[in-house]
Design brief:
It contains 21 helices and no strands. The protein has two domains: 191 residues, no CATH class; 210 residues, no CATH class. The protein is 80% helix and 0% strand. The protein is mainly alpha-helical.
């Protein structure tokens, strides 16, 4: 978001900012599902002792992710014109060489945080995150500040990915042996396949939104949408981080009751201050967006307010329990149905509310998916929602936030 602020205040045009957002969109869309599926399928199977013994499993996960990164690069090369024509209405993808390098090295580099997670080294994770972000921030924003075009920012983004990849190699050699184990790779990929598919379906919502917008609107409008289509960062980061951090605990099934109570307690703590903060952001967004960015992004405030409503589904954690219990096929089916709801509602709502309709479709789809997972968890695992959620408090918070949204967007 800070990069977005600097871009908006620099000499870059909204169209150039749209090119940067498109770069991130394509690189994320082609890799997010299999990367997250492999990592989250891996976490419940490994613990700190595995790392202390320098097991080869981390290196083999790295081999698997790197191999899929190479396949993703080849996919982009083969289908470049089709992808560019469909999404960008152009004959080629801008800055393709940078995109291929970035995809190849930045995707495996995502393993760094999870090595620290497994080792329970939170301070080192924070230090790494602070340094790597600061480096990326400087390398990306300095070129436009000095008057250079967006190409130099993309080159800086690639350079920051190189530094993260280099540190990953250092951590791998410190904590694992490079022995190649094809049996592990085959078994892990096979067991993670349902989760990969569910990640592809469920996580596609933000990319489907972007694809629909690029189909109906120009690059400048796409930039306006992307600047608004950002969830409250603390909600997204804390919810995802908490969910992922819980997964290694499910390796010991005897602690199920403890883990459920921990989810309930922490979900309530998150809600106690995340809902009020979301409400505060909703109150000031229409004033803040033209000031923080520029007047060209005033319409982004409405999109942002709609995305703030995603907190209602984000602070529900049935998927965490299902992944921990390795009931990934249920998640896959819920994700499949969610994608249908998302596409249907987004295409319908865009005809009614325009750009905002795409965001409404996403909110509806996320709520549908989480509700379905709650039902699956109750019916198949006999785990009631009250065991991992303070339902009455969550409902009250949700109703207050929805009422505030209606007043701000449709009454005031």
């Amino acid at each position: 978001m800070l990069i977005g602020v600097v871009f908006a205040k620099s000499g870059l045009s909204i169209s150039e900012i749209g090119q940067y957002e498109t770069f991130l969109l394509i690189s994320g869309a082609i890799s997010f599902f299999w990367l997250n599926g492999l990592i989250q399928g891996f976490l419940p199977l490994v613990n700190k002792e595995t790392i202390s013994r320098k097991s080869p499993v981390l290196f083999n996960l790295f081999y698997l992710i790197t191999g899929l990164s190479v396949l993703s690069v080849l996919f982009l090369l083969v289908f470049e014109h089709s992808i560019s024509g469909l999404l960008l209405k152009k004959s080629s993808i801008p800055y393709l060489n940078y995109l291929l390098i970035y995809l190849l090295i930045s995707t495996p580099a995502s393993l760094v945080e999870y090595i620290y997670l497994i080792k329970n080294e939170g301070k080192k994770m924070v230090a790494y995150g602070g340094f790597s972000f600061f480096l990326m921030f400087c390398l990306v924003i300095i070129p436009p500040v000095l008057g250079f075009g967006i190409e130099y920012s993309l080159a800086g983004l690639v350079a920051s990915a190189v530094s993260r990849f280099s540190w990953l190699l250092v951590l791998l050699f410190r904590n694992a042996t490079p022995d190649f184990d094809p049996a592990f790779i085959k078994t892990h990929f096979s067991s993670s396949a349902p989760l990969i598919l569910s990640m592809f379906l469920s996580g596609s919502a933000q990319y489907i939104d972007s694809f629909i917008v690029t189909s109906y609107f120009d690059e400048a409008t796409f930039a306006v949408f992307r600047y608004g289509a950002r969830e409250f960062p603390l909600v997204l980061l804390l919810a995802n981080a908490f969910s992922i951090s819980m997964l290694p605990g499910f390796s010991d099934r005897s602690n199920l009751k403890f883990n459920l109570e921990k989810i309930r307690h922490n979900a309530q703590k998150l809600g106690n201050w995340m809902f009020p903060l979301s409400g505060l952001l909703m109150m000031v967004s229409h004033w803040a967006f033209p000031v923080v960015f520029n007047v060209g992004f005033a319409q982004s405030a409405t999109i942002f307010n709609i995305y703030l409503l995603l907190i209602i589904s984000r602070l529900l954690f049935p998927q965490t329990i299902l992944i921990g219990l390795q009931k990934t096929k249920l998640i896959m089916w819920a994700s499949f149905l969610e994608i249908i709801v998302n596409v249907t509602f987004s295409l319908w709502f865009v005809q009614i509310w325009g750009l905002a309709g795409v965001a409404y479709g996403t909110v509806a789809a996320y709520l549908f998916e989480k509700g379905l997972l709650v039902i699956f968890l109750s019916k198949t695992c006999r785990i009631s929602v009250s065991s991992y959620l303070n339902g009455s408090r969550h409902l009250i918070y949700s109703l207050f936030l929805a009422a505030e949204f209606i007043v701000i967007e449709y009454i005031i």
